[in-house]
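_Full entry_
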Amino acid sequence: MPGLLIRWGIQTLAILAAAYLLEGVEVTGFFSALFAAALLGILNALFRPVLLLLTLPFNILTLGLFTFVINALLLMMVSGVVGGFVVQGFWPAVFGSLIISLVSWLLTTLVSDQGRVEVIALQRRGGRWE
């Protein structure tokens, strides 16, 4: 449970970073970003796998770049539902989803499922890395 809350906070910070860096993405307050992060997480968990499966031929043809379009569409859907979170157009949504994905990925790699910041230290023992 703590890992989920930390990831939710990380997603909120990523949305705030996208709003700070891009002109077409606007957030009026922290709670708007918090609700946008919650809804984006729910949409990513429920609809993103189905959309990826349905658009698999396009993803194969574009070598996976069509995934950015799916992320942008999900971000625009969140923008339509959450008041105080506005994405003005398709390209700001694409760049916003790219920034959100990068910031979330960078910060989530440091957090374990138990919600702790962990560093993996490998040691060589008997020809094996443990």
